[in-house]
Amino acid sequence: MSEQIRENKMGVMPVGRLLFTMSLPMMISMLVQALYNVVDSYFVAKISQDALNAVSLSFPVQNLMIGVAVGTGVGVNALLSRSLGEKNFETANAAAGNGLVLAFISGLVTIVLGLVLPRTFFLVQTDIVGIVEQGTEYLTICCTWSMGLYIGIMCERLLQSTGNTIYTLATQGVGAVINIIMDPVLIFGLGPFPAMGVAGAAVATVAGQIVGGILGIIFNLAVNKELTFRFRYLRPRAQVIKRIYSVGVPTIVMNSIGSVMVFGINKILMGFTDTATAVFGIYFKLQSFIFMPVFGLNNGLVPIIAYNYGARNRERILRARRLAIYAAVGIMAVGLAVAEIIPARLLSIFEASDELLEIGVPALRIVCTCFIFAGYGIVSGSVFQALGHGVLSMVVSIVRQLVVLLPVAYLLSLSGRLELVWLAFPIAELSAVVMCTIFNRKIRREVIDPLASSQEN
């Protein structure tokens, strides 16, 4: 392997330009992902509010699937990038191979669960027949055809780990375009295709994921020259898997907690009206336009931090973290401004009734005040993960969503005033800011600053 390949750009390119070039393709691809999430709900809302609720109530399970895939990918990403920074190519290759195996196993488990659990999941939430029937159909398809999701996300992480983020734009972009095109075709039965309703939205989603996964495999084999793909690296290695999940499990737990939170909030909102759960579902679709670019920024940041931690370059770590926080807060500020100025127009995208507008306008204005704080917290959590301290991110997530958000939302619901329930979101985000600040200082003192003395030696 030549010196040019060995000297990865993450160790030498100016940090600002590196973060921009690493993150921009991911931010664009994440925006495309957000677009097709909204398109799904846009067309489903034209069927009925029950159909919109069915898709919205499926979110906790879909979020859990994505959480397992992303969490495993984050663990692989951190180990792989750090190993490249250390010039440990054997471990890097083993991390990639074992990551693919773990993604495949996750897909198999999800397929089995998708065959037996969806109806029970909906019956626990509601007894409205239209929601249960359509939701079961939608979620069963998403679970049993989920292999494309797991393989696709893992392949994207392998490309990100080596700085080839431009190719993830292609994998996610093509998958999203397929989803967007096929949504109206399959939902309403255009041309030779039958009208499938909510099931059509699910088929369009998994079709895009499968194509994205296939492209991810092709790109890794064709252009990811820093990794060697051989069968011997697919053999599970306990030490490698342990290191992957030391970072990945906290991320999986955080997403699992997010699913529990959404499930709990939906139960609280159902106590008022099912329209409130529709508003909450719409909020999650809309906020993805703001959060997804920040997640894309983080996807570019993690390998930079991990690589330079492996290379023991303190200044590049600190500069990358600082620039990422500025960018994330700026993106979130734009989202907050839009939500405050035109909430009714945003809700009207989803065939909003008068009742939905009455509930939704104040809800968006209140909940979206948490955006500014969230930008700081998201970047901080990614830095913790990249430095091998993902458990700190997990602690922040547990406190924010389970210790603060759900209990506060429940207590406020006892007032009988729905608008007060939404205040739980900014309250919870403020608690996360305090914890992230404490943990950032701890990480700076115990992990980052000691790198300076080791460089001097």
What is the topological layout?
Blueprint: H1 3-6, H2 15-45, H3 49-57, H4 59-85, H5 89-116, H6 118-125, H7 129-144, H8 147-161, H9 165-188, H10 198-223, H11 238-270, H12 274-310, H13 314-341, H14 343-348, H15 354-367, H16 371-386, H17 390-413, H18 418-421, H19 424-448, H20 450-456
Can you give a write-up of this model?
The protein is mostly helical and 457 residues long. The chain has one domain.
* Mean of residue pLDDT values: 88
Strand portion: under 5%
Which overall shape is indicated by the principal axes computed on the Cα atoms?
Answer: globular
What does the main sheet amount to?
Answer: none
Number of domains: 1
Overall number of strands: 0
Please give the radius of gyration in angstroms: 22 Å
> What separation lies between the terminal Cα atoms?
29 Å
Pattern of helices and strands: HHHHHHHHHHHHHHHHHHHH
Helix content: over 70%
Helix count equals: 20
Low-confidence runs: 1-5
Which structural category do the helix and sheet elements fall into? mainly alpha
Summarize the structure.
The chain has 457 residues and is mostly helical. The protein contains 20 helices and no strands.
